[in-house]
Amino acid sequence: MREVAVIGVGNTPFGELWEKSIRDLYVEAALKALDDAGVDRVDALYVGAMSSGMFVDQEHLGALMADYIGNYHIPAVRVESACASGGLAFRQGYMEVASGMSDIVLVGGVEKMTDIEDATFALASAADQDNESYFGATFPALYAMIARAHMHKYGTTRDQLAMVSVKNHKNGALNPDAQFRLPITIETVKKSMIVADPLNILDCSPVTDGGACAILCPLDMASKFKGKPVKIIGSGAATDSIALHSREDITALKAVRLSAERAYQMAGKKPSDIDVAEVHDCFTIAEIVITEELGFAERGKGGPLVESGKTALDGEIPVNTSGGLKAKGHPVGATGIAQIAEIVRQLRGEAGKRQVNNPKVGLAQNMGGSGASSITHILEVV
Fold first, then answer.
1. Whether the predicted model's global pTM rises above the 0.85 cut
2. 380, CA 20 to 30 Å: which among 119, 205, 260, 351?
């Protein structure tokens, strides 16, 4: 297999983008990534999207996006793995370049979520329809169960959940493309509207429109282009039971742990080698559990980890410097690529006011459903 580099990244602002269509969002992000890389053509295209058919009545996204970026005849594929669709699109593009099948690949993700009256219904399609959604157990309820179980088993506190949101909003306030750029307090989180106890609305990621893209090429070809390359050194993927009740322990996310272990093994790295990470904080409890599964904290110690300040922007292992899904926004198909874009910018030293001090190795972890799928990538400066 060939070594692969990211040579360009681009994204739209995230938010309620009423004036833009799903094709507008992808094309805007793609053109930014192509310009960043200094590339005027691609050999293949991948687009991650969870549920464009339900959100905007549009399927066949591979051909649609190839058409609208002006590359009609290339292979173009839509990839779906719920909220991990973007991460999986990145992995598929990585494997295509590594295998030698293509030299320059555009990988992207997009979602237009605000055009539908009931986004919760569309999102719930990523859960077990017969055994969860039918009975009203949508994702806020499922993650509330995880939170309650984690609090009972490990003593995780309500304040520690809120601290995840406070940290990520603080980071998001420094990100010009974030949906929410307003710092908040622990009390603000705790006094916000209850969604599914113990989760309030400020514990939940928002409904978002947005697109993000990256350009991949063989590492030995990267010097031909203007984009500063960042090497992909690890890629891991895993799945778990789709229904929460089928798992041995609902306070754990086994697919996250397995995807991370596979990425660490491939990269020859361990958790202590990671300088900056973007993780899938669809709910505050998700970040707490994910940091445990990634090995940043012992099992049950994710709450104390965020309380210690170690995951803050100036901490030992900054987590979600972009603002995360919580503040940056969560256009589900685009999230995994947006995480990659943030890690690339951090490793290049291009993250502006949220720049981490001299990072060398970064990690991006993208998750689908209540942890039924997970993709982890590790990137390194060249």
1. yes
2. 205
